[in-house]
Amino acid sequence: MRDGSGVTVIEHGKLVSGTGAEPADDSTVVVKDGRISFAGARDAAPAIGPEATRIDATGRTVMPGLVEAHWHASYFNITVLEDLDIAHPPETVSLHAAFNARLALECGYTSARSAGCLFNTDVALTAAIDADLVVGPRLVPSGQEICGAGGLMDWNPEFRKIGMEGVILVVDGPDQARSAARKLVKNGAHWLKTYPTGDAAAPGTNDHHTLSMTYDEMEAVVQVAHNHRRKVFGHCRATEGIKNALVAGFDSIEHGTFMDSECLDLMLEGNVPCVPALQFEYASVHYGPDFGMAQAVIDGHQETLEAGAESARMIHEAGGVLGMGGDYGFAWNPHGDYAKELSFFTDYVGFSAMDTLVCATRNGAQIMGLDDEVGTLEAGKLADLLVVEGDVLADISILEDRNNLAVVMQNGIVKAGTMAAFTSTVVPAL
Ligand SMILES: [Zn+2]
Questions:
Q1: Ligand 1 center–CA 255 separation, angstroms
Q2: Distance from the alpha carbon of residue 127 to the mean position of ligand 1, in angstroms
Q3: Model confidence pLDDT, tens digit, residues 73-90
Q4: What spacing in Å lies between the alpha carbon of 417 and ligand 1's midpoint?
């Protein structure tokens, strides 16, 4: 991804650095050749020459770019779970993914961790974004997802003899789990996504209190991934599944819905982050009926919502690491709604706006392993930042509307926002 050149000064905005520090009401942020050289109170800023590009942020918030910590590029606003899989050819899936990448950036998400993708499209998408062929969040790919046979994501009935792996590699036993993990590593996945548990979306045999993988299968994936310096994460709702994941050495827990004190101790001990992804549950309960969602599924999502919020509060109060994001790409929880997660955490879970922003910026970068480069506005880091109309700390919901983003900057280049110029002025070398 190319860096900006020259000097840009963003003046007079309310600076929310992402570190959790008190905001500076009248701030200056200096960006030089793609990196932040100063971010702080205006009266402490260095003198800047007249050649600099100046952005007036009066009445605006200056903050780090957001991090979507559980993003599915290929989930294209579907209504039926099985359509996450092979409903379109790879060519169409690629176009969907590229569209969603641009949308995410336009929504202020300058980084994202993929949490599973059809046909490994996210591996190609990551390379395309890095090469400036596609505009989107700086991405960490995960490729296809691993699930145990008969588990949550093993939905293609035997008679279809589909004979083709789409979004899921179905494994039966640790040997197959190891093979799947090796295949993903070979194909470019950085985070290997697994399904230790079921979900409310599949009431009956794979609901949110069931397991979708055995401990041995999970451990096999971890051994392969860690050997190759890759990471493992998993869809973990049932208490035993969370525990299995933490004991097996998972690097992050997705959802962490039914946490108990033993889970919490294990999570804190390993400093393992959690991405609850709760807006999805809220949206399922409230908008699911409009899309014909069965009552048993809605009831399960309600239970998941309440337990998930309780677990998130528990982790937060105990000093654990939470990231924001999750599972956008369903008709009732579409791409583009990403920042609703943040409003949900302030309105429903009870987090302060400041804590929520830290989770959505610094913690997200930490989860991605990019906290040396992005996630906070500090000297030396890449200039991934937003200039937002209004005071985000007073009303975090302003982030939900793209029209409130004046600037979405990545590597010092304004790529989206109402002040953006053309984003495709440089044709990348093929
Ligand atoms: Zn997911």
A1: 9
A2: 21
A3: 999 999 988 889 988 999
A4: 27
The structural domains of the chain, with segments of one domain joined by +, span: 7-65+376-416, 66-368
CA dihedral 87, 90, 95, 97 (to 10 degrees): 80
CA proximity to 324, closest of 400, 248, 382, 266: 400
User: Closest Cα to residue 214, out of 181, 247, 250, 172?
Assistant: 172
State in Å: Cα 235 to ligand 1 middle: 7
Rounded distance from Cα 70 to ligand 1 centre (Å): 6
Distant-in-sequence, close-in-space partners of 247: CB < 8 Å, separation ≥ 6: 215, 266
Distance from residue 85's CA to the centre of ligand 1 (Å): 13
Strand order in the sheet with 53-56: 35-41, 27-32, 7-11, 53-56
302: exposed, middle or buried (C-beta count within 10 Å: 0-12, 13-18, 19+)? middle
Q: How far is the CA of 421 from the centre of ligand 1 (A)?
A: 33
Q: Does pTM top 0.90 for this prediction?
A: yes
CA of 327 to the centre of ligand 1 (A): 5
CATH number for the domain formed by residue range(s) 66-368: 3.20.20.140
Distance 193 CA to ligand 1 centre (A): 9
- Distance between Cα 253 and ligand 1 center (Å): 11
Radius of gyration (C-alpha) of the chain in whole angstroms: 21
Q: Residue 273 pLDDT > 70, yes or no? A: yes
Amino acid at 9: V
Q: Given a cut of 60, is residue 428 above it in pLDDT? A: no
Structure tokens at 414: 């304004």
Domains 7-65+376-416 and 66-368 share a fold: no
Q: How far is the CA of 194 from the centre of ligand 1 (A)?
A: 10
Interval between CA 250 and ligand 1 midpoint (Å): 16
Other C-beta atoms within 10 Å of 268: how many?
A: 14
What CATH number should be reported for the domain whose range is 7-65+376-416? 2.30.40.10
pLDDT digits (tens, 9 = 90+) for 329-374: 999 999 999 999 999 999 999 999 999 999 999 999 999 999 999 9
